[in-house]
Design a protein that fits this description.
heterodimer, A: mainly alpha, 0% strand, elongated, B: mainly alpha, 6 helices, globular
Chain lengths: 300, 158
């Protein structure tokens, strides 16, 4: 067993994937651990716990060529020391991947992590566990396992994940299947949204023919129309005195001076209107009027 | 919005943020226009409003944190003859385009090109990044449309 492993190691070295230190590291300890790996492959669950030791092994050949897409929630150490690079690894036991997937995953992780460590310049620091973000790709049975196709597959899966997110946003995307159809739907949606913006801006220009968006002339009603989406709690009567409950929830986009001036104008407002809305719109008016010269208006 | 599992960060501020920005940009337009000729053509007005809408949307959606909003703001600032650091972006674009041309599905590339023309700043992005930006862009666009619709409804005579 060891001989075949050594042969593979030599092959890998020819591929210039394994540093020359590798052989030194593959001492007697490494071979023992290798035997444990082999026995694991032969048996099943009992060697589960032996994986914990694997991070100290510096030399091991992975028999499978799998890199996972999602992180396995098993041994945290294995996960932390997993690889980021994708390499060409000859897989003899690919059929085992299809069975008992979970265990194989960790085993692959450990094996590939060990390979990765052997390739790192400081292999002595393998015991250091660093949390990194890895792109895990799983090679399925019968698929090519070379580097480029793995990378290509990872990229494609990333893309499909994002397309799924887009599917949730764009209405009517569920009926169409396939990338091309979905992309067409998305493109149509974006175009329709942009056309809507243009149409509405035309309407606005018609409604206000002299481009008089002077704040004093905008009625309270318009402001209320814009801000009708706010929660009901905002429009209570108590808002009149409660200056701190400014409705904007994402205040990081506002200048803080704006908020302060709004609070002061709310307190000083003499309106006797019953609804809290009008108070707020009045304060917004004042604020916008007073701030018309500030740099807040300039295009940043 | 429903809280679906979305690994990509596509949160968008509430509607009132967009509304506030839009109104401020419009009032800014008015102060700018007081020096120009009063009898503008309709198309010019429309263009100004449209530009104001996009700029305010870009600012409300996150300013320069997002690629598309950043490129929108740059385009707008360029038209106003403001100083814009364009050079760096251009270099990045060419490098990315060279990288992109090496790989890519022929099926998705055609549609991706169209999408790139639609989404601002899409020329310098990889396809996966483009998808993220598109998602955020769509959310912001729909929010902006809602705001404008409300405004139009409020202004229209009843």
């Amino acid at each position: 067993m060891d001989l075949s492993v050594l042969e593979r190691v030599k092959w890998l070295q020819q591929q210039q994937m394994v540093s020359p230190e590798f052989f030194e590291i593959l001492g007697s300890d490494g071979r023992e651990e290798l035997k444990r790996v082999e026995s694991y492959l032969g048996n099943n669950n009992d060697e589960w716990q032996s994986f914990r030791h694997y991070e100290t092994i510096d030399g091991c050949i992975s028999r499978t060529s799998s890199f996972q897409m999602e992180q396995v929630k098993n041994n945290e150490e294995n996960r932390a020391t997993a690889l980021q690079h994708k390499r060409k690894i000859e897989g003899k036991t690919e059929k085992i991947e299809n069975k008992k997937n979970k265990k194989i995953k960790t085993e692959d992780e450990t094996e590939s992590s060990m390979k990765g460590k052997s390739n790192m310049s400081n292999s002595e620091t393998s015991s250091e566990i660093q949390k990194r973000d890895y792109i895990h790709v799983r090679a399925r049975r019968g698929e090519a396992t070379d580097r480029h196709s793995l990378a290509e597959r990872a990229r494609r899966e990333k893309l499909s994940k994002k397309m799924k997110c887009l599917q949730d946003i764009v209405p009517g995307c569920n009926k169409v299947t396939g990338k091309a159809g979905m992309l067409d739907e998305i493109i149509n949606y974006v175009q329709s949204l942009q056309q809507q913006v243009e149409f509405l801006s035309m309407k606005l220009s018609v409604l206000n023919p002299e481009l008089e968006y002077h704040i004093n002339e905008l009625s309270t009603k318009q402001f209320q129309a814009c801000f009708t989406d706010l929660p009901e709690a905002v429009s209570k009567q108590s808002m009149m005195v409660d200056a701190s409950s400014f409705p904007l929830q994402h205040q990081e986009s506002l200048d803080y001076s704006v908020i302060n001036s709004i609070q002061t104008t709310t307190l000083g407002s003499k309106d006797q209107t019953p609804s809290g809305w009008e108070i707020h719109s009045q304060s917004l008016y004042n604020n916008l009027r007073t701030d018309s010269d500030s740099s807040f208006f300039s295009l940043k | 919005m429903a809280s679906a599992y979305n690994p990509i960060y596509t949160d968008v501020p509430e509607k009132d943020v967009f509304a506030l920005h839009f109104l401020q940009t419009l009032s800014n337009l008015r102060t700018q226009n007081s020096f120009s000729s009063p009898d503008n053509k309709t198309s010019d007005r429309v263009k100004k409003i449209k530009k104001a809408a996009y700029v305010s949307m870009a600012r409300a959606a996150g300013g320069t944190n997002r690629l598309w909003s950043r490129s929108l703001l740059h385009q707008a600032a360029k038209r106003n003859n403001k100083n814009v650091r364009f050079l760096r972006r251009k270099r990045r674009v060419t490098w990315l385009m060279r990288r992109r041309s090496n790989r890519g599905d022929p099926i998705e590339d055609v549609a991706a090109e169209r999408l790139r023309n639609l989404v601002p700043g899409g020329g310098g992005m990889e396809t996966s990044k483009l998808m993220e930006e598109t998602a955020h862009y769509i959310k912001c666009l729909s929010m902006q449309v809602k705001v404008m619709q409300c405004l139009v409804d409020g202004l229209s005579p009843k």
